[in-house]
Amino acid sequence: MLIKIALDRVTVYLSGEIDHHEAARLRPQIDDALMRKRPAEVELDFSDVTFIDSSAIGLVMGRFRVIEAWGGKVAVSGLTARQKRVMKLAGLDRIAEFRESEKGDNTNESDQQNASDGSGQVG
Asked: Under the phi-then-psi rule, with left for phi > 0, alpha for psi from -120 to 50, and beta for the rest, what region is 93?
């Protein structure tokens, strides 16, 4: 994980698998940066994330709870089509803005193929 701190924005570049153990390790590091800087926005970039479970949803929701204390906003970027679908089903699009990563679209070929094969299933 890399945390980039700008004037009014903190960007967190996540990588690997975001499961219960990894989320527990990441939370205090991200929260420390947020509490020190108190930015107007935190962006969680999932471009290099290979796996998520419900802990990733909790990671986003928890950072929303932290930053909303001073009126900040949460953005989520770099999601695969499958990750985006899971997060939208969980209702995160009501508390976070979904956007492309600075690294570009993260929709991989299998997500695109499955989404367009007519089955209605993603991934």
From this structure: alpha
Using one digit for the tens of pLDDT, what is the confidence trace for 68-102? Answer: 999 999 999 999 999 999 999 999 999 999 999 87
Write out the DSSP string of 45-62: EEEEEEEE-HHHHHHHHH
Q: Where are the domains of the chain?
A: 2-116
Assigned CATH class of 2-116: alpha beta
Q: How far apart are the first and last CA of the chain?
A: 25
Angle separating helix axes 109-116 and 81-89, nearest 10 degrees: 70
- 123 burial type by CB count under 10 A (0-12 exposed, 13-18 middle, 19+ buried): middle
Closest CA to 31 of 54, 8, 63, 59: 63
Query: Binning pLDDT at 50, 70 and 90, where does residue 106 land?
Result: low
